[in-house]
Write the structure tokens for this entry.
Amino acid sequence: MVIRIWRILPLAVTLLAGLAQAQPQQPAATAPAQRIIKSGTVASVAGPAENFTGRVRVDPLTATNESINTSTAYVTFEPGARSAWHTHPAGQYLVVTAGAGLTQEWGKPVQELRAGDVVWCPPGVKHWHGAAPTTALTHIAVTGSQAGKSVQWQEKVTDEQYHSR
């Protein structure tokens, strides 16, 4: 017997809506409230010279909290700027929002990045990322934390490593 999804979809939606209404609702007085962090209320910081080559600006967006073990930041690399080699104990997403850049996993070729690209850096994978030689790069870093630690910095990326493509 063939059931046409368009015939049963309205029934399924009605049934699910009825179930949702039947569930006890948490009283508004005890429900957690949204938090809004207003733009410009958290100061930008320069990427420290021991962890970056070139000019890097970090604009913190969120810190870990009692509900989510992740922090976020806008990170802007001027042309030629890059991070040192590093790992993340709980992994990291990079969402490229502007410009062009490069990333490399230890022992693998350099990869190009463009606005709209998303990079997943798995836990413990040694890598670096930064701007292209002639173009700035901005990405949102979404970084997991494990035992209060989000990154393990290592040696700086050499000019030879940066330019090897």
In short: The chain has a mean pLDDT of 87.
